[in-house]
Design goal:
307 residues; 15 helices; single chain; two-stranded antiparallel ribbon; 2 domains
Length: 307
């Protein structure tokens, strides 16, 4: 970002080292480079420490742009928070909802990061927001959500599911003007395996003829519905394995131990869990996704409290 031509790709480690060696031909330049490297490292550490962002920050170009947005002095604290939210929304649409791999949008991200650093105080909030909207313009959130809700979401999409469910938890808290339970947040994101924290309400392997018999439409195939986002619940580690393939009434008794999660309270209100319950909840999550990952209008940009 600070050195090089600001082209459409990140330099390799070897190329970066060689570039810095050529540049650092005096003590003053060496000190300047060292300070800049410290700044970048500090911001990268902050990004990597937030595991709830890992579903997007695992992509190199997303991290590079994120660091540039954190480093620019052209933004107020409030503007930086709004810009950060737009960066997250766009990046999740591209690499989450639309499931692009790390080859997508490399040049666009790198060039935007280089422009932000190169222009310094000459850039402004509206310009950055406009460029972020252009970055995600090919990835319409409504189309992405529609595609997500058409098919099972869990398999090979586990980290994205945890991210969606946690952001849904934050969304429910925001609707109440409240904050999320930080203790449960830490437990959920400390778990390395998503299987420790994502519960299938209608179990993946129900007992034949057991309490789940007849809960799905007679023509429905179990595997087509159990992995839908509407059937997934976020739980702190330990509770998922206890719930297993028990009946819904028994599962609710286990879920009550995680009442600090609004996403759990929502399920506890249900008298039964069946096809209609899955469909209804999935529609509600779809509304949340569209509301939460559409572009933020600059003229009405509002920085929500992050949890």
């Amino acid at each position: 970002m600070f050195f090089g031509k600001g082209g459409g790709k990140a330099l390799s480690a070897e190329e970066s080292i060689e570039l810095l060696r050529e540049y650092c031909d005096s003590a003053e330049k060496t000190i300047s480079v060292t300070k800049k490297l410290h700044l970048v490292t500090d911001k990268l550490v902050a990004i990597n420490l937030d595991r709830s962002l890992s579903v997007v920050t695992r992509i190199l170009q997303v991290r590079i742009l994120g660091v540039a947005l954190m480093l620019t002095e052209a933004l107020s604290d409030k503007e930086r928070l709004i810009v950060r939210q737009q960066w997250e929304r766009v990046s999740f649409r591209i690499f989450g909802l639309f499931r692009n791999d790390a080859r997508a949008k490399v040049g666009d991200y790198i060039k935007l990061a280089a422009w932000i650093i190169r222009e310094g105080s000459e850039v402004n909030f509206k310009e950055i927001m406009a460029k972020l909207r252009i970055l995600g313009s090919e990835h319409n959130v409504e189309e992405g959500v529609k595609d997500l809700l058409k098919k099972p979401a869990y398999e090979n999409f586990e980290e994205e599911c945890r991210y969606i469910l946690w952001r849904y938890e934050e969304y429910l808290a925001d609707q109440e003007g409240a904050k999320v339970n930080q203790e449960l947040r830490e437990k959920i994101w400390a778990a390395r395996s998503t299987s420790e924290t994502i519960e299938h309400i209608f179990p993946q392997n129900p007992v034949p003829g057991g309490p789940w018999k007849g809960k799905l439409n007679s023509h429905a195939r179990i595997e087509k519905h159990v992995d839908r986002i509407g059937n997934l619940l976020l739980l702190p580690p330990g509770l998922n394995s206890k719930a297993g393939n028990k009946g819904f009434k028994e599962k609710k008794e286990i879920y009550e131990k995680a009442e600090g999660l609004r996403i759990v309270k929502e399920v506890l209100k249900k008298r039964d869990w069946n096809q209609a319950a899955i469909d209804q909840r999935e529609k509600k999550i779809g509304v949340f996704l569209i509301d939460s990952f559409v572009d933020i209008p600059v003229e009405r940009g509002r920085a929500k409290s992050t949890s």
